[in-house]
Design brief:
With 340 residues, the chain is an alpha/beta fold. The protein has 2 domains: 123 residues, Rossmann fold; 171 residues, Dihydrodipicolinate Reductase, domain 2, CATH 3.30.360.10. The chain contains 11 helices and 15 strands. Strands 12-11-7-10-9-8-15 form a 7-stranded mixed β-sheet. It has a 6-stranded parallel β-sheet with strand order 3-2-1-4-5-6, sandwiched between helices. A two-stranded antiparallel ribbon has the order 13-14. A hairpin with a 3-residue loop joins β11 and β12. 48% of the residues are buried. Bound molecules: nicotinamide-adenine-dinucleotide.
Length: 340
């Protein structure tokens, strides 16, 4: 019988703790062997809480550890590519949070490293595993809405992240809209060829110091002639609002997960429901399903359905959006990764 995949989670903040908890309790054929965080208290506490045998403040030590088969990287974004390259050198299976990197050259180096090492590599684009998005993708691929013509995506976060997160995030296009760029490619089954990025500072004046905005819009043109727009906002006071619409020549899919618990209260000529508070609640199933898919690939020796190339392509769109915002004009994609 195949033994469980021995996993190490690197970075134990909001996202890393979620992955560690899933691996410890909900993922079949996986065990949480070790955890790392530069904060010794959080590393030690998480190991004790979730039953990991080993904890450390040095992520690199776990990448090299014999008792680890797979590393799950959920450290700040500016560390991703270096840790991915280290995992490739060590021959460890890799689950890497988005984005792959903040820099296209570095992203390509990381992609080349994982490819030449032949390790399984999955990017943390969990929305692909959300049951609603996965269903829409299957139906679109089966031709149920005819030819996909336009995608409209809205991603509004309930509150801007803390300053230290923003400083390493790479800005709203690479950090937040990147989920929608990946979804756009996934749902439309098409590649983006030109990008126009716009943005404003509406609430979080402090984002200016990182060359960032707290509200952004990206207009996308696709190779097929289809188009789309991606809206991102950091300070959505009413909750976590993720909506997507794919307009086809014979039908439209509209996906929303705004409603918490699926319960609506009806009163006299009035109805109300609770709004989902954040990404961990909205994508709870998706985080579990993406990790199970990764572990299944490691066991079966198959390639994950979303990998480093997808990470590169989404980053290419985000990089072009940032450039477009700065230049105030559309930017054609060099499509260097698209040819990879
Ligand atoms: N897929 C998603 O939906 C999603 C959601 C949130 C965050 N993320 C991504 O996950 C990553 C982490 O985001 P977060 O919100 O969890 O951040 P966070 O700030 O909550 O957590 C980061 C953690 O990493 C630790 N850390 C920092 N440097 C480290 C290092 N070199 N080695 C080990 N630990 C280190 C920090 O101490 C902290 O505990 C980011 O790249 C982000 O883009 C993805």
């Amino acid at each position: 019988m195949q033994r469980a995949v021995r996993c190490a989670v690197l970075g134990l903040g909001r996202q890393g703790y979620c992955h560690a908890e899933n691996i410890a309790h909900r993922i079949k054929d996986a065990e949480l062997t070790a955890v790392a965080d530069i904060g010794p208290d959080v590393a030690q506490k998480t190991a004790a809480q979730l039953g990991a045998k080993r904890w450390t403040t040095r992520a690199e030590d776990l990448i090299l550890a014999d008792e680890v088969d797979a590393v799950i990287v959920a450290t700040p974004t500016d560390t991703h590519a270096a840790l991915a390259i280290a995992a490739a050198k060590a021959g460890k299976a890799l689950f890497l949070e988005k984005p792959l990197s903040l820099d296209m050259d570095e992203a390509r180096r990381a992609m080349d490293a994982v490819r030449s090492a032949g390790i399984p590599c999955q990017l943390g684009f969990m929305r692909r595993f959300d049951p609603a998005y996965a269903h829409a993708r299957r139906r679109i691929a089966a031709g149920d809405i005819g030819r996909p013509l336009y995608i409209k995506a809205i991603s509004r976060d309930p509150a801007a992240p803390p300053a230290d997160y923003l400083a390493a995030s790479g800005g709203i296009f690479k950090d937040q809209s990147i989920h929608d760029y990946d979804l756009a490619r996934f749902l439309m089954g098409d590649e983006v060829t030109e990008v126009t990025g716009m943005g404003s500072i509406l609430v979080s004046e402090d984002v200016e110091r990182y060359g960032d905005v707290d509200q952004a819009l990206t207009f996308l043109r696709f190779a097929s002639g289809a188009a789309g727009d991606v809206e991102a906002y950091r300070n959505c006071f009413y909750g976590y609002d993720i909506r997507t619409e794919i307009l086809g020549s014979e039908g439209t899919f509209a996906i929303s997960g705004l409603q918490q618990h699926g319960v609506t209260l009806l009163r006299s000529r009035r109805s109300s429901f609770e709004i989902v508070p954040g990404f961990l609640e909205r994508f709870e199933d998706a985080y579990r399903l993406e990790m199970q898919a990764f572990v299944d690939c490691v066991i079966q020796g198959t390639e994950p359905s979303v990998g480093a190339l997808d990470g590169c392509r989404a980053l290419e769109i985000a990089t072009a959006a940032q450039l477009s915002l700065e230049r105030r004009s559309p930017v054609a994609l060099e499509r260097e990764c698209a040819r990879a």
